[in-house]
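User: I'm writing a tutorial on reading structure tokens. Could you give me a worked example: one chain, its sequence, then its tokens, then a sentence or two explaining what the tokens reveal?
Assistant: Sure. Here is the example chain.
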Amino acid sequence: MSLLSSTQGTPERVWSLVSLLADSGGALDRAEAAGWLNPGFTRDNQEVAEKPTAFQQVVGAASSLGAVEADGSMLRLSPGCDASTNAAFSDWVHDRLATLDSAEKDGVVLEAFAWLAAKSDAEGSVGWISQSTADGFADAAEQALPDAADDDGDRRINRTKLPSWRRWLISLGLIVSFPGALQWHPLIDRRVARELTRAGLRQNEEIPAVAFLSLLAKRLPYLDGGPMFVEATRRIKHAERPRQLSPILSAALRNLHDDGVIELKLLGDAADLIRLSQDTHRLQAFYAVVAKSLDVV
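And here are its predicted structure tokens:
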């Protein structure tokens, strides 16, 4: 199973399994784990057992991530999987997915987001997302992705798998649920701030814009300058605008500036300026970044 084909293996249920194994010394009998995650209930004085499919898909998703290893009747927490907190596990999942390439089935999660970011850059905004139907969005994403099939023999992303894709992106801090046609919107503020914190930026240290963006591209390969983003722009035949950021990254940096998490320095030599995507916000360009209060996000 892959993350997207395991439709009942939601991030919340995978985290429940991972934290259960961690609290059980790193291993637990499969049947006992199923009892904890899928307890039966009483209806009309009769015991009703949960369908085993749901638990199987949770194990499938966790195994696909490499977080859990199935050893006969035992489930074991994989060495290196950080189950200390939900946030730490989310970081571990993010790091894991960020290293995958097109040959690996779960690479589609962030590859599809890279396509989303690249297409938004080509369109000049994210407005096209709310105007897309679920089928249209899934078809466009699939056509823009490298040729590959999921382990269920179907397309790597389709209408049925979109809800799973969105749930994992929400858990990673890349999108939020909004009212609308697709009921979601790209918003990467939390993940950008988290990665800047993890990178160990020193408070009040000024970083040149180019160096700052290079750091982001390494930690967030699906955004401007990262290898997934660059490949996505190539596949849709979109040329990045020199020294101008995409709408998704621009919005995040403006939001973090407004929230006091970072400070975008506004004055400097025109040759050093990085332009943000067009917006009514007063911030249109910057030449350096100062980390201010990364721990508040």
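What the tokens reveal: The longest strand covers residues 68-71. The radius of gyration is 21 Å.
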